[in-house]
């Protein structure tokens, strides 16, 4: 605990929690959440949260990690609705052109 901000995004808009979700690093996600990383921070270009990225990159254990940390179903719904998702998600092999604003993250 060096006092670093766990919500500080890089130049691409990716927070440490999003990066860990993309890479499937569940233990790192756990550490970031213990350091008070915010679960509902949305990527500035496509609106995806760490939950969305974990689902998209086929890391259901990481998505579950976020879901478990949510205090309530309302919190999880807020995370999911951040991107305004409504349509079925592309399959794990269809990663080109994915935008959470047009695809839900259902693990």
Describe the structure.
With 107 residues, the chain is mostly helical. It has helices at 16-23, 26-34, 50-56, 60-69, 73-81. The chain is built from 5 helices and no strands. α1 runs antiparallel to α2 (26-34), α1 packs parallel to α3 (50-56) and α2 (26-34) runs parallel beside α4. The protein is globular, with a radius of gyration of 13 Å. The model is unreliable at 85-105 (pLDDT under 50).
Descriptive labels:
single chain, 107 residues, mainly alpha, 5 helices, 40% helix, globular, disordered C terminus
Give the count of helical stretches.
5
Helix content bin:
40-55%
Structural class comes to mainly alpha
Strand elements, count: 0
- Which strand-content bin applies to the residues? under 5%
Rg measurement, Å = 13 Å
Mean pLDDT comes to 77
The parts where pLDDT drops under 50 for at least 5 residues are 85-105
Q: Let me know the largest β-sheet.
A: none
Distance between the termini: 32 Å
């Amino acid at each position: 605990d060096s006092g670093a901000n766990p919500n500080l995004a890089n130049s691409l808009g990716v927070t440490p929690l999003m990066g860990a979700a993309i890479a499937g690093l569940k233990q790192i996600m756990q550490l970031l959440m213990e350091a008070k990383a915010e679960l509902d921070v949305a990527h500035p270009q496509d609106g995806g949260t760490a939950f969305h990225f974990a689902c998209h990159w086929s890391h259901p254990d990481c998505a579950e990690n976020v879901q478990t940390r949510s205090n309530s179903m309302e919190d999880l719904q807020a995370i999911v609705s951040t991107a305004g998702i409504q349509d079925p998600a592309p399959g794990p092999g269809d990663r080109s052109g994915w935008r959470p604003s047009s695809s839900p993250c259902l693990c």
